[in-house]
Amino acid sequence: MDLCKICGRPLGTENVDKHHLMPKTFKGKSDSENLHSLHKICHRKLHSVFTEREMQHYYHTFERILEHEEIIKFVKWVAKKEPGYYSGSNETNVRHGKRR
């Protein structure tokens, strides 16, 4: 069974997203070295913490992602949840509204 590269929980079939370590915006490829399955909640957390430019320049490996303080706290919290757990957040929508 595949495990999420962020939280280490089994992926299952519910609430699973694909994440490009090197963002597509910056010519990231969709091959097996760059594209990885993550829980939807873990994927959304990455994009709420890091900009795509930060992912391009530094956070383009799971080792680097997992050393970030906010991600460490998130992993401790989410590790206690069921693998299919997902709780949507308005935080992303609010942030996107401010960019316009």
What is the compact description of this entry?
The chain is an alpha+beta fold. The protein has one domain (16-92).
Structure, explained:
This protein has 100 residues and is α+β, with helices and mostly antiparallel strands. It has helices at residues 40-49, 52-57, 62-65, 69-78, 91-99, and strands at 16-20, 35-39. It has one domain (16-92). 39% of the residues lie in helices and 10% in strands. Strands 1-2 form a two-stranded antiparallel ribbon. It starts with 15 loop residues before the first strand and ends with a helix.
Strand and helix map with partners:
Elements lengths: L15 E5 L14 E5 H10 L2 H6 L4 H4 L3 H10 L12 H9 L1
Helix pairs in contact: 1-4
How many distinct domains? 1
Strand content: 5-15%
E-strand count: 2
Query: Strands of the largest sheet, in order across it?
Result: 1-2
The outline comes out as globular
Give the helix proportion (percent range): 25-40%
Topology order in helix (H) and strand (E) letters: EEHHHHH
User: What is the average of the pLDDT values?
Assistant: 88
Structural class: alpha+beta
Low-confidence stretches: none
Major sheet description? 2 strands, antiparallel
What's the total helix number? 5
- Terminal CA distance reads 41 Å
Work out the radius of gyration: 13 Å
